[in-house]
Each structure stands twice: as structure tokens, then as C-alpha cells.
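Q: Predict the assembly, please.
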Amino acid sequence: MLRYVLVRVLQFLLTAWIASIIVFALMQVLPGNAAQVALGTNATPEAVARLEAEYGLDRPLVVQYLDWIGGVVIGDFGRSYVTEADITPVISDSIQVTLIVVIASMALALLIAVPLGTAAAVFHNRAAGVAISGASQVGIAIPNFLAAIILVMIFSLGLGWFPSSGWRAPIEGIGEFLERLVLPVTALALVQAAILTRYVRSAVLEVMREDFLRTARAKGLTAGRALVKHGLRNAAIPVVTVAGVQLATLLIGAVVIEQVFVLPGMGSELVRAVSNRDLLTVQGIVMVLVVLVLLLNLIVDLLYSVLDPRVRRAA
Amino acid sequence: MSTPHTPAARDTANGGPATTDSTADAPLVAVEDLTISAGGRTLLHPTSFAIGAGERVGLIGESGSGKSLTSQAIMGLLPQELTARGSIALAGGSGNLLQQSESQLARLRGREMSMVFQEPMSALNPLMRVGDQVAEVMRIHRTAGAARARERAVELLDSVRLPDPAAAARAFPHQLSGGQRQRVMLAMALANSPRLLICDEPTTALDVTVQAQVLELIGEAVERENTGLLFITHDLAVVAGVCERVMVMYRGELVESGTSEQIFTDPQHEYTRGLLAASDLTATDARGRLFTIATAAQYHSGAEAGSDTDSDPGRTTGAATSTPAGEATRGGVGTSADPDAPLIEVTDLVKTYRRTKSSLFGRADEVPALGGISLSIPAGRRFGIVGESGSGKSTLLKILSGLDTPTSGRVRVGDVEVGSAGEAELRRMREDLQIVFQDPFASLDPRMRVADIIAEPLVPMGVAAGERRSRVADVLQAVGLDADSAQRYPHQFSGGQRQRISIARALVCRPRILVADEPVSALDVSVRAQVLNLLTDLVEEYALTLVFVSHDLGVVRHLCSDVAVMRGGEIVESGPVEEIYTDPQHPYTADLVAATPTLAAVFADAGSDPRERP
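A: Predicted assembly structure:
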């Protein structure tokens, strides 16, 4: 078990390191160097050279890479060539917003999908089950930005229940924080819930056919209790796989949703950095997004071994 | 069996011919006019029977005969889409079980009546510790508190003779073997001392030696607790060893019922007679073929044929036919350089598998599958390989057919060195050597027409389309299938027919060697006899060398001229089949022979209940 965790963590570190090289290399292959991009097309060669010297962009690439990654490891993403401010606070502020939105969305999506998917499986040959399947089909087809706009039109502009945009940190008032969170989280969660409902449904249908569920009933559990006690944890295994992959797409989905609701998350910062031609900030944010996705995958892998004893031994 | 009998058990066992009358005062279970249907289709026609307290009743029949449906109906576990009518009453219970709600039935399941299922590998929850699963059945019915239930679980695991029961209780199902899991199922079923135990093919998926142990365990437990037993199986020999009364089901109807003695010595129904004849692997007709349901009329009643099995004339006929077939072959296809050299030769064959690495830096574990075996098979012989799961017989077969490579050692088939052969040589070898696999349901591509399945081996050989069609028609006829089968798909055929298709596919490129991997172990007894007869016919007609892998010593004894007994990657004993069978030299072979339930043993005891006569 400990060995399994160790192997997975090592794999994570290795992948993250390779990813950092790729991210760094990608920024280098863009036309012009960072100083030139930052100063724009009208910059004099002298100005570019001065900026290069100031930020060490005239050094060999390997040295620049090591300098950058060395900083990233201790949480220092460097200083922006454009705003001349430290990048680290930008990332650490925006990552909180994004993570809150993503995790809340996934939690909400699972809260909707698990009971709905289970019901769809249990009543699969009845009207209720068919209706749930149909609704989830529709849900999958709606892009989350469209869902966001529709939600804003109904609940913000129409009914006036929630603000249409903006962000309050929890310490500034928990009520205001939650109020502004409802619509973006719901917009992201609805589509996820639709996708997950389908997976939960097929996982539960699969598990309902298992012999051990029949054994559980033969032991004296009713069909319903057998499903809850023995079925759902088994059904959770394939669902966790999908949810893990979906978390990564949620992270990307959040970039778009943050634009719609004007949230100061990583997506907004990324878009701003790109339009400011702030390459080092872009590089930092992309690196953090990559590490987050890898980290989520690591957590899913470790979750497997908690759920499934067979994985523990196989490792 | 020398254990003292409880008076109740003795009473019912000695009940005589009219067994149902002996349980006159309120039987444990009374089934009346039970009818099961799906939509408009009747799967089980009105069926009535009763099981007395402590009575051991066998229910036999082939797949689809309705025996499992009957047991599911009693347990209240019928699939939702089926409807059951009639009545099922449990002694001291509250009326008709068929009219009770799921929660009422759940209170009875695992407490008053419990069940052991066929497939031990999937019947336990893979995510839950074994001890917890056993304890759960006591927690559900509140027959023990949490701590006491855990203790009892270990005691129960001990009582089904799991070595180190405390460790077994902490294990997850995947850490146990099939036999061990079936013991766990039994421990679970017995936890609340139910009055009725239903076993649905509990040993069908197990190795013979394990089967013998589990059967003994069931017998003991039932006797100790005076539990009524409904034992479902397709294996007549097994049922005869366990049950005192037998019911026979055929196509959704209970066609015959009586004491084990009656059923085995004086079967009344045509189907029972056929089943009995087809089950008897030691009896053959004038041509040396096994009896089938169709030819059962010529089969003399079990008691006569079996009372002196070893000098049974049918057996000698069977043995005699194999010799001419062998002689003919040796002259017929002597294409290899040296005609006297064995057609297949295996020398010091070693195969080691690497388990996936358990750590990033540690060494991979090596698991030996074959530990240096040698054997030679002359052309025209019918060579049986017998062993239990994990004996290495499947690995040997894979290497022999070029589907896997040896770690060391040599394998020669004809003039091809299989271990070092290139793709082209292997392809040439496969024209000579073809395989029939175990599972007729999984080994045929469901989206291909039968004609295409059978013709497939001919495509790489460059046989023209017209020629392929005519060869397909030929082999279809040879395996006894209609010509119009060619345009149909595998799912339209029964298990036995699909195995015929597999055989046709193997024979279409006219191989010299036919390798069969447990080809009849998934088939019903009556179908098994037909397929074995077909194999015998084809081996003679096509002058084939047969390599036949099986866990069933009886089948190998009937079909093969020679046998090698494998265990743990070694050949423990090999030689002419009759010699090995009647005079085994290795203790494992002797165990295997002794553990295999045979009708001959049943007949030897015929006229006496094996449990009652010391």
C-alpha cells in the first residue's frame, strides 16, 4: 500500500517535471523573445537589450530554465516583464477562486448525478428512468457558457435572486460570497452532472447484474438495501475514473465561466496575461494548471486504492 | 460415513420408495403448481414437490430445464421480468412465499433458508473483507451483536475448514481460491443454522479434488444441523453421492422423482434413461461410441452395466477401436522426414511468467508455470493431458500451438521448431495443428457468419473463394450441422452446436493434429456425449493425432489412448490411459481418480444408500 502511494507520487513528480520542460520550451518557440513581446513592435533594440539584461533573458536557455524551475519549486514564479510585479501573488490569489469554483461544481455535480443516475438504473425499464436518461442527454449537449447565460437571464436579470457577476472573498462576508458563487458553480455543475448521471447509471446497471448482489439478497437484504450496501461502492469505481477526467475539463471550463461571471480566477488572469503579452505570467499560470490536473489524477489514483483492495495488491 | 445419525435423518433416509409420504406431517418446503413464465412464454410448467426436514433432495437437469428458476422462486430471487404462480410454503411460515413482499422474504433469506451459488469467483463482494461478509448475515438478522458476529465468523470459517480462519476473515475475496471462496459461501449460508439449504451447482466450477472436499463439507453440515437440502446439479454422479432422493427436470417439467436408488437403477422416463446412459463414460455401444439420449435404448440399466464396470464389454470395444485408427494414421500422413519420429516432441520445456513489478526498483517476481517437462506424441495417438487449474496444462497448450514462447526447452511439431519459428513457419505449422477452445460462447466472433468463421483459417492459406465454400459445406456436414447453418450467426446456435462449429473451423484446413482444450467442460452431459462421439468419429475419419486437455479423468479415459497427469507445472505420471487409471503410481493421480465422482461407484453402491450402509 505504502509502496503503491510512493510509486504514484514519484510518477506524478516525474510527469510534472517533464511538463515543466514542455511548458518552458513552448514559450521559447514563440516568435521573438519575451522582452520583445513585452515591449511591443515599436521598441528600440536598445530597450529590448536593456530588458533582456535586466531579466537575464540573454543567458543560455538551460540556465534560464533552471532559474525559473528552481523558483517555481519554492513557490517563486518570478517578476513580470510587463507589470514589473511579482507573479506569485497573482497566482496564489486566483488559484483560490478557481479551486473553490471547480471543487464546489464537482461536489454539486456528484450530489445531483449519484442519486439521479442510481434512480435511472433502478427504474431503467420504467418511465422515470427513461426520463432521467433523456434529460441527461439534453444536459450533455448544452455548453456550459450557454448554461451560464441562461442562468443569468433567469435568476439574475429575471428573478433578481443572485448577482449576475463579481466575487467576494469568504472573509468579506460569507453570505455575499455564497450568493455570488451560486450561478457560476451551477452553470459548471449542470453539464458535469448530466455527463456523470449517465456514467453512474451504467455503473449501477452493471453492478445490479453482479452475482454478489444476488448473494447479498440471499443473505437477507432487500434488493434496495443490497444495492446501497454492496452495490454503490462497487459502482463508484468506474465513476471515480470518469469524475477524475472530468475534473480536468472542469478546470478548463472554469476559465470560460470566469469570463462570463467576471471572477478573478486563473482563467481571468490567464486571459489578461495573454492580452498584456506577459509571457512569464502565462508560463506560470499554465504550469500551475498542468500541475493541478496531474495532482487531481494522482488523487483519483490514490482514491482507487482506498476503494478497491484489488488495486492495493496489484501495485 | 461413520458419524452418528440424528433420528430424524435416519427416518427420512429409510423412508422407502414413497418418500414424499414419509414427510407427511408438514414438509419443510411444499411447492405446489409452481409455474414460471416470461411474457407469454412458460419457462416452468406446473411443478409440485416437497422437501422434509433434514431431507437431502437432488434436482437434476440440463441448462434451461428450469432447475435454477425453481430454486430462485423458493428464495424469492426470481428476476423481476418473470412471473411465478402457484404456491410455495415454508413449514411454520406465514403462507405462500410467492405472495410475500420483498422485505418479508428478506427476513426469511439467510435465516430460515439460504443458498450457495455456482460461481464462487463472482458471488462475493470484492470490496469487503471475507469475515465481514460472513458476519453481515448475522448482523442482518440480529442473531449476533457486532463483536459476537465477528467471532462467530471466524468460528464458521474454521468449521468449513479454511486453514488459518482468522487470517481468512481479514482477507479480501480475490486473495482466496475458488474452492476457498465456495467454503466462505457455505459458511455464510450456514451462519444462522437455516432449516433449508439450497445449493445451485456449488461445485461445478471447482477442481475435482476440491469438489470432493466441498461436497463432503456440505454433507456433514447438513447432517449435523438436520438441514433440508435442495441440491441442484447436472452431474448425476455428484447428486448420487449427496442426496437420498432425486428429482429430474426436463424442458421446464418435473419428469421423474424418486429415491436415488430408484432413479439410478430403474429410471422410468425416457430422458432420465438417456441422461444416465450419456453420463456413463465407461459404457459404449457396439461401435465404441458413448450412448446419447437417442441411442439410450440400447444402454442396459445402470446397475447391470455398472455392477462389473471393469469387465464391461462396451469398454473393450471402445479401446479396440482406437488401435486401428492409430495404425491407419501412421501409414497415411508420414510427411515428416523420419516416419518413426514422434509427431510432437517436447523436451525440457520451461515457462516462467514475470509478475508485474511490485516496486520501481525491485526485481520482478518470477512465477514458474512449467518446470521442465518432456513428452512425445507419436502420430495417430490420442493423447490426453489431465490436470487441475494451475497445473500448467493451458500454458503447455499455448506453447504447443505457437501462441506463447517457451522460456527454455524445445517444442517440435512435425518438422517445425515451435519455440524459434518465425511467423511464416508458424503459419505453416498451424495448417497442421488446429485448436478447439473451451468456451463455445466466447470463442466465436458474434458478428461473423458461420461460413466466414469456418473459412477464416483458409484465407491466409490462399484458398480461392469457391473452394472455400465447398470445403465449408464439407466440414459442416462432417460435424453434423445443416448446410444452411453457414449463413447464420453464432448466437443462433446452442452450446453443443457452437462447439461443432469450432470443430469445423479447426478441421477445415485439414490439419494432422487437433488440439482440444476442455472442449466439453462447458456442455451439458447429453450434449457432451454427442460431441465426444463426434470427436472420436472425426479422429478416425481424418486420421488425426489428438491432443486433448481436460480436468475430467473420465472423459480422457474414454477418449484417449495415452495420458499425462500434470500438477504444478510438472508431469507427475504418464502412460497408456487404462494403466494409469487402474493402477496409478503417483499419489496425486490416485487422489484424482478417487475424487472423480463416477456412476460406476454409484452403481456399485446401488441398492444401498451410500450414507446409511457402513
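Chain A touches chain B at residues 3, 6-7, 10, 210-212, 214-225, 230, 233-234, 307-310, 313-315 (CB under 8 Å). The mean pLDDT of chain A is 84.
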